Fold this sequence. Notes:
- By secondary structure, the chain is mainly alpha-helical.
- Helix content is 75%, strand content 0%.
- α16 packs antiparallel against α17.
- It is globular and about 70 Å long.
- The chain starts with 24 loop residues before the first helix and ends in a 19-residue tail after the last helix.
Amino acid sequence: MSLPRTGPPSPAAAPAVPRSRRCRPGAVLVVESVAVFMVMLDNLAMNNALPDIGRDLAVGVGGLEWVVASYTLVLAAFLLPGSIVGERLGRRRLFLAGLAAFTLGSALGATADSWAMLVTGRIVQGAGGAALLPSSAALLRQVFPEDATRARALGLRGAASGLGLALGPVIGGPLVERFGWQSVLLINVPIGVCLLLFGAFFLPYAPPCRSRPWDLPGQALAAVGVGGLIFALIQGPSEGWTDPAVLAGFTAAGLALPALLAVEARAAEPMIDLSFFRDRLCAVAALAGFSTSLALFGAIFFLSLYLQYILGWSPAGAGLVFLLASAFIVVTGPVAGRLSARRSAFRPLLVGVTLCPLALAGLAGYGENARYAEYCWVLPVIGVCVSLTFVPVNVIVVQRVRGPRAGMATAIAETLRELGGVTGVAALGAVLNSRMRDSFLRQAEAVLPADQATALADRALAHGPAAALAGPGAGAVRRWFHAAFLDGLHAALYTGAVATAVVAVCTYLMVRTPAAAPADEPGALVRPTA
């Protein structure tokens, strides 16, 4: 198989840009990696805190969903607008502004005494993350102009991103049990302040592209389209796919996203350069990142429920399960960066997308009596999969896109990854709930009238097992619930395994022939060979 080369330096180097005399590439890499780690950590760190938040703030299930969803919704919806704002105002300014907003949002959430204030803090956090992520990759391209060193730097940044996702449950669970749910947010504040001080001192300066128009129609359509889609995917499983608000979200996305493509295709200076998707290699990298995020986000979310519902573990114990996966992300992230730099980032990417269905199928092999030792082979596979997928995706996207459009390309890749995570929870959750309901009804209807069995299934699925496990027969109902949950979980995991296996085959087929090298002129995207 002949793979495209992405590692060696291109003949035409990117034009030099001003750098502060205090700029230290290593310091810049540390500041940006820690900042990206914090942003990705807060995707999952709040999950184990939700029961305590509900008790302290008197919030029901619907309100708790928005404690998590508000962050992801704003983060994904504004990543693309954030990339053009970074080019217009300057990447350094936007990175520091995003870091300040993320820190402020963490402080607001940690001191919240109401649900509204907590959600407001999470929204501010998401907006800060949306400003920070695309500008961070563009700054690394500026500080590390050579392809090989840039790939290693992006490998470390990608490892920090994957590690943040994996350590969310690991850090969140013990913090909640020891210091309360506020500590999950409060820990970001001193770290964010230190990063602001170091960033203001060490980050390089480059003049903003003031000649670039704002593209306000594109920004508005992207926010409405992506935001509406994520809203509908999040609310659909709990409210029902025919709920008016869910249908309104899908309608907004269905109207805004095609309009966005039409507007961007005609714009002289578009926010989204559609040639990104015509580049076969960028497209396959984005697809691989989306599908892996879809599968692993969904698997981690439901595995946390499995560990607490079925195995009866504490939030801290359920979080610590992922520690072994996190360790392998730390080890293999830099290795993935070096492999991507040597010759082709597609070699580790192919390995990563191949390991994903293997990991999901492995997780589906365990039932009600599983022990931690039995996961010892699956968790390292998940860790290696994260590093060998997300790191090469970042390297490919940044190296295939020249100069000032690196922020836009990174924003597209990050948006698709966030969308993949939300889609994974929603889509795999729909499979789990459908299979779980059928399994529960089969067991209940064997000993109960159909109407009683249906009412019992509705209570168990809508409000959890506690709502249906009181009174006579509680032991039998608990067994039905556990068996039904395991049936649904296994169906969801196998569905994810099949979907990612298809993506792995497509990835192999799409990169087996060489593609054109990146264009020399700054800002250009490669055009694929026939």
